[in-house]
Each structure stands twice: as structure tokens, then as C-alpha cells.
């Protein structure tokens, strides 16, 4: 049997070129290699291992941020209690100096009457009060929209549910009791 000239041509299986075999081909492998995990078959932009690592790092950053926020909230709560204690103590001390006897003297009754109109919010409390009042105004607007028949989304409904918590904050209770508003200094 005679072979034709067409069957004697060598075709590369990698690049489909003629005149060489795949072992001698200068074209690299067609499968990409990931520069992150060094595995074949995908690029770094689609690397599953890199995405998982990025997700873990993001969760760790979020957990650290939440821990810092919780710690800051605890410190703010402690400062608010300390400020309340100082405010009540200073008001009581000023009244005690004008009165004949101190309500904190040994043997004196424990319930001391404090005139809250003489007390005022600190600058930090004033800032918090303004933020809470803004949120309460937004909630009131959402309630008006709801009462008008508009449909609210999930986040707006969650905001409505937070009203009681906002109204029960320490700074808002102080305002209801009659604490004077603080004047914020200029941001120069």
C-alpha cells in the first residue's frame, strides 16, 4: 500500500500548526496557571482559594470593628453614668452649700431632691441628642408615609421598630426631665 503525501504531514496537537509535534511546540500550555495558588486551570482573578481568604479577612475585620464599637459603646455608657453622677453630685453639692445641712451628711435621708433645670447636657450628649432627634424625625416621616398607604421596604420597617429604643436612650430621658441643651463650640 502506498501512502499519500497528505498523510505524511505532521500536525501539532497543541497549536494545530504543521511541521512539528506537541513536544517540540513553542506555544505554552493553553491552561492558565494561577499566580496565587500556583494551580492550573484558572487565573488569579477567579481563584477560589483567594476569594475564600478575602472573605475570611473581611469577616475578621468586621468582627474586630464590631468589638471596637461594643467597647466604645461600653466606654460611652460608663462616661454617661459618670457624667450623670458628676452632674447630680455637683448640683447636689451646690444646693447643699446654700442649704443649712447637706443631704449627703451621715444620718440624712437618702433621697435628695435635685433641681434638674440647673443641669445641662455635655457637648458629647448634645451631639448624641441631635443624632437621635434626626433619626426620630426620619421615623416620623416614615410613619406618615406608611399611614398615607405607601409600602415601606424591610430596612424602613426595621427603622420604625427602633423608635422605642431611641426614645429610651439616656440622653433623651435627660431632655424629657428638663436638662438644658448644650451650646456646641465652633469647629475652627
Mean pLDDT: 78
* Helix content estimate: 40-55%
CA-CA gap between termini? 100 Å
Query: How much beta, percentage-wise?
Result: under 5%
Largest sheet, in brief, is:
none
Outline the structure in words.
The chain has five helices and no strands. It has 188 residues and is mainly α. About 3% of the residues have low confidence.
List keywords for this structure.
mainly alpha; 5 helices; 188 residues
Secondary structure: elements and pairs:
Layout: H1 48-98, H2 123-147, H3 154-161, H4 163-167, H5 170-177
Short description, anyone?
The protein is mainly alpha-helical and about 190 residues long. It is built from five helices and no strands.
